[in-house]
Design a protein that fits this description.
The protein has about 40 residues and is mainly α. Helices cover about 95% and strands about 0% of the residues. The protein starts with a helix and ends with a helix.
């Protein structure tokens, strides 16, 4: 199946980008929460 052979690397790439985006957003949110706690707001 040439289509699946072409499709799977793209699917893996999308999954990798999604996971990286989720991890980055989580780290960013934790940083914001920590900053808010330190400043006392």
């Amino acid at each position: 199946m040439p289509t699946s052979a072409l499709l799977w690397p793209r699917v893996g790439r999308v999954l990798q980008l999604t996971l990286e985006g989720v991890a980055g957003a989580t780290l960013f949110g934790m940083m914001l929460l920590t900053t808010a706690d330190v400043t006392g707001r």
